[in-house]
Amino acid sequence: MAKEDYYELLDVPREATEEELKKAYRKKAVQYHPDKNPGSKPAEEMFKKVSEAYEVLKDPDKRAAYDRFGHAAFAQGGGPRPGGNAAGGFHDPFDIFREVFGGGGGGSIFEEFFGGGGGSDGAREGADLRYDIEITLEEAARGVEKEISFRKLAACDHCHGTGAEPGSKRVTCPTCRGAGQVTTSRGFFTVRQVCPTCHGNGTRTEKPCHECRGEGRANKTAKLNVRVPPGVDTGSKLRSVGNGEAGISGGPAGDLYIVIHVKEHEVFERQGDDLFCEIPIKFTLAALGGTIEVPTLSGKASLKIPTGTQSGTTFRLKGRGLPGLRSGQPGDQLVRMHVEVPTHLTPDQRKKLEEYALVSGDADEPVGRSFFEKAKKFF
Hints:
This protein is α+β, with helices and mostly antiparallel strands. The chain is built from ten helices and 15 strands. The protein has three domains: 88 residues, Orthogonal Bundle (Helix Hairpins); 98 residues, Urease metallochaperone UreE, N-terminal domain (HSP40/DNAj peptide-binding domain, Sandwich), CATH 2.60.260; 110 residues, HSP40/DNAj peptide-binding domain (Sandwich), CATH 2.60.260. A hairpin with a 2-residue loop joins strand 10 and strand 11. Helix 2 packs antiparallel against helix 3. The longest helix is centred in the N-terminal third of the chain and has 17 residues.
């Protein structure tokens, strides 16, 4: 039997936006959810089909393949299975509702209506944390190791994260009587939600830890050495796995994200992996030529100035920029010349310049001939 079109299953046009797909899936999932259609095999099958359709169409790459080849794009076993993803892992069709209603590891409004919860053991993952760090351009170029200090919820030292006094036993939760959920009536609906006392565990500690009051976590100051690789730029993020907040009831810890900010430099301006700087030179050097020393992030470099160099001329120093964050290949340094014109002349200097103007003809033609030829019609 030919498989139904994914767009028709969700009742959306082929040009539907991501938001339209999300709304359509939410509507269909609610309509065919097994909890609303107990014992209905057709509803269960439709729920699986719309979940599969959304799994494909929400992914830009999978959607492009489907638009091009249809179901044949997944005919060799690479496509999603009902309730699964392309890698064979389980796809939770409730993810879309968590996104829409802002739920997380338990307690969203959708989970309250359909009986989701914090898991059989009540364990919940700790929150991710963000830390902003400022470094210099020199540190960004060579890489640097920084020690950071921050406050976070860490596992309680007294109970080691269990939330119970050492030696205390676990007893059946008196609120849910071991079910892990409590049921209440709201109009026409019977609402199940995670037990607020045991967080879905079904049991609670006989004697909560007196240090953390049963939370299993306490506020602490954490220190961490962070290795910043060469080539980072403002906005680069580093991820430190497991250094976020501690989980609840033995759940995994969250992650720490370090966001990089590179200070502005007084000499150099960064342009990707290239560096740019402007150097003022005397007009005599520009006219006669010579060699000067210019600053780079790795020390001084010699730069030859040709005779007759004009203001705005830019020279390139190969490999004197920053290393690429992924490639490791260095960028270049661009050096632009700014020719300074003297503003204060001694009588002797003025006399010499006037003599030069007479000898060179500048006194008679103060404007460059090339410009005059272009603009002579205005005179």
